[in-house]
Amino acid sequence: MDIEGSWALRSIVVDGEPRPGRHGLLIYAADGYMAAAINESDDAPAPSAEPPLLYAGTWELEGSEVVHHVSNCSEPDRIGRSLRRRASLSGDGRWLTLVAEGRFGQAVLEWERAPSRVADGTASDR
Predict the structure, then answer these.
(1) SS3 per residue for the chain
(2) What are phi and psi of 117, to 5 degrees?
(3) Which tens digits make up the pLDDT trace of 90-103?
(4) What is the predicted pLDDT for the residue at 126?
(5) Cβ burial, residue 89 (10 Å; 0-12/13-18/19+)
(6) Pairwise CA distance, residues 4 & 6, whole Å
(7) What is the homologous superfamily of the domain 5-116 according to CATH?
(8) Angle at 74 between CA 85 and CA 59, to 5 degrees
């Protein structure tokens, strides 16, 4: 499964309830590092009490799961943990679905592959 690259959050559903007004970025680097950021967007229908979730560490694929080994996080209790996500690709690799289960219940996150920001070896629009 080729999930290396950058992904933009398109939707979150927690225990069957959509969570509108969220945006995020998920990066799986070729060197095995990863970073995730999920925040409330400016157009959220109502402010939530949920703080942004920001974390980084390393990643690996184990069968149909991606494992995030957390080394830095906005929620300190996640540091040092390995977070398992069932992963699937669709739309010719354009869409990534991650399913997480934890103390919050079940979360289904839909990500869209972000367009490359590199042209001819240099980043564009900096």
Answers:
(1) CCCCEEEEEEEEEECCEECCCEEEEEEECCCCEEEEEEEECCCCCCCCCCCCEEEEEEEEEECCEEEEEEEEECCHHHCCCEEEEEEEEECCCCEEEEEEEECCEEEEEEEEECCCCEECCEECCC
(2) -100, 10
(3) 999 999 999 999 88
(4) 42
(5) middle
(6) 7
(7) Uncharacterised protein PF14869 family, DUF4488 (2.40.128.490)
(8) 35
Residue 38, both tokens: 């999920």
Q: For residue range 29-64, what is the model confidence (pLDDT) as tens digits?
A: 999 999 999 998 877 666 666 789 999 999 999 999
For 46-73, give the secondary structure using H, E and C.
CCCCCCCEEEEEEEEEECCEEEEEEEEE
Q: Which amino acid is at 25?
A: L
Q: How many CB atoms lie within 10 A of CB 111?
A: 23
